[in-house]
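#dry-run=false #mode=assembly
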Amino acid sequence: MPLRIAIFDDNNNIRDSIGLLLRTEKEFEVVGSFPHVLDCVADIKACRPDIVLMDIEMPGMTGIEAVRTLKKEYPEVLIMMQTVFEDDDRVFDSICAGASGYILKNFLNTRLIDSIKELQFGGSPMSPSIARKVMMKMQQVTEQMRPAGNTNYQLTPREKEVLACVVNGLSYKMVADALHISYETVRSHIKKIYEKLHVASLTELVHKTMKERIV
Amino acid sequence: MPLRIAIFDDNNNIRDSIGLLLRTEKEFEVVGSFPHVLDCVADIKACRPDIVLMDIEMPGMTGIEAVRTLKKEYPEVLIMMQTVFEDDDRVFDSICAGASGYILKNFLNTRLIDSIKELQFGGSPMSPSIARKVMMKMQQVTEQMRPAGNTNYQLTPREKEVLACVVNGLSYKMVADALHISYETVRSHIKKIYEKLHVASLTELVHKTMKERIV
DNA sequence: TTTACAATCCCCAAAAGTGGTGAGTCGCCG
DNA sequence: CGGCGACTCACCACTTTTGGGGATTGTAAA
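#status=ok
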């Protein structure tokens, strides 16, 4: 079964040359080639590609919006972005929008085939600088996820369960019901948790728990 | 000026063969080679590498903890992880801890030199499957950053003030005091907010507010 | 075996929050 | 001007939470 590929690019020459290039590979089949993304959902619906090559600069709807739209409708389609410039920020955005790979047009001739195969087999081909950017963003985000880091309050498993419940908005009674224990037991746990987290009310508790990503 | 490289790996053979391999490149200089990471901070302080090759499985302190520690002390040092198995999760964690690249030991011979150079010139060499994992995590995280996106609950400025207070753990009385209004007024605002956010208790309110990044 | 602690349950009195209803002032817009 | 909405305040009845006390069981470490 061949790998079905669709191309979106406003430049006819590039579209054609990509098509020619891809046709040199037996297992590739170019099933669509479009100069804009205004009808991209309908286009994809019609040609059913496995992989989409998406130019990032296009008239009308931009490639990155198209990615977002397409990914919402067809999450299983893999999208590889391509751009002339090493336009880090926009490519980065499009990656966040749902693209799985990225390649510079300069490298189309030498790297396109390999990149598509990498994409097909579970990889995410991207240029070095983008990779670094993604890594740093990654680290930055996970960093802000745990502010104090090693804030270990030594909650017991049961206490964590109770905490999870109240944080999700359950009242003591509902927690008791959910965990099949009595109302008074819930209270006992809560009291302990209050001591351990140094709070004195549910609002503080929820706030601290969510801010510090406990439970 | 040569590129200074340090190696951490508990396997002497691997450490030696990596050293030999790297010495074939004129611009590389192996400035340190250590069988464990227990003194990694001191080691780095002593040999001052530009790039660290870090084995992920090691006795005592694990490679990933070492990454976290080192990055705290020497954020400018680039760290490349290496592992025998394609141990996605742990490698992924170490990347989050601050590693800038990752390579499978199988590929050491063929890809190590290139990967180090890629690292040196601003890239983030990593195996395809890890790249994909990172991408997906990236998308998932940025997704949860804006949950519904356009969740506009039309809170008035005053209501937002009140909300900010209660979310920070203040009781009604304290809010009243802080905003120089009466207790009953605070209650009025809270009631309105409850309606607008479709919640029925403070815990739900705090939870929803924090989850959806209101205030 | 004693000690320690998680987990379960109970009671009382005080404090805080919830729901409903009503109502006054102010400023803005048609 | 009249209506609307933001902001302010009040009262009543009710529920929920909080801060003290205490008790029992079982398990696991000292």
